[in-house]
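Student: I would love a firmer grasp of how sequence relates to backbone shape in proteins. Thank you; the sequence and its tokens follow:
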Amino acid sequence: MEAPPFIKEGFGEDLKEIRKIKGKPTMPPMTHNYMLGLVALVVSFVLTFYLPIAYFWMKAHKARKQNK
């Protein structure tokens, strides 16, 4: 099975050029898949932790105002 032409041609060539220019190992450029994964992690973290904390804080803050 042969790789598609867009993968086979020039695969990793730009990365080799970047490393030659700087002379030291560099972090590879972030691809769209990694960016999407990072966004998914951040969004899931916010929905899992910060949203419930904010909700219960608002609820407690509202109840505290009514007691005054």
Observations:
- The two ends are 74 Å apart (CA to CA).
- The mean pLDDT is 76.
